[in-house]
Amino acid sequence: MIDKLGFLVRFWQLKGRHATQASPGAPLSSSEQVELLSLMQLVTSDFKMPPPGTCARPSNALPAQLIGEGIILAVEVRHVCAAALLVAGVKAMSVGERVIIRTADAVSGVEYVLPCTLAWVHDGSPCTMALVVDGIPTRSEWLAAGAGGAPAVSRDLRAWPIGRQARLES
Asked: Which residue, 1, 20, 3, is CA-closest to 115?
């Protein structure tokens, strides 16, 4: 599942940059335009929104964090397609809510952060939610390859203190 997510993140990055070319930023180069067209042909059949309902837990489900306004939920990414990501968690969020989903693969040393909107919620145990990517996702690598094919070494990852935690209430 992590490989398909990586593939689709590249598609969503190019698609998002293409959609926002009128805003400041670098437009897609000609090779990126060709890449986007190629990816669009590959994901066309995968662009169907899954219907609301439960989603069985696959053997390769990804642990993730779903970050909303004033809340962070531990979820599991159970299905990835070009139209949406299906996640399962203990608690539901509201349809239409803007969230960020963050997941990482410790083996390959890659982290994905995707801005999304909740498309639908299916209450159950666990609760299933469909997330539609609505921005430009990011892919970050934790590991950098050493010189001359040497093993990868960890980058300097600094921890920032977040201060006293408080519950946000409106």
From this structure: 20
Please give the helix or strand (H or E) that residue 64 lies within, else none.
Answer: strand 62-68
Sign of CA dihedral 161, 164, 167, 170: negative
Per residue in 17-28, pLDDT tens? 887 765 556 677
Residue 159, in any domain of the structure: no
pTM score, whole prediction: 0.75
Structurally, the chain folds into a number of domains equal to 1
Give pLDDT < 70 ranges for the chain. Answer: 21-26, 143-170
Phi, psi of 30 (to 5 degrees): -65, -35
Burial of 56 from C-beta contacts in 10 A (0-12 / 13-18 / 19+): exposed
Q: pLDDT over 90 for what percent of the chain?
A: 41
- Name which of 132, 123, 131 is nearest 53 in CA terms: 123
In a domain? residue 168: no
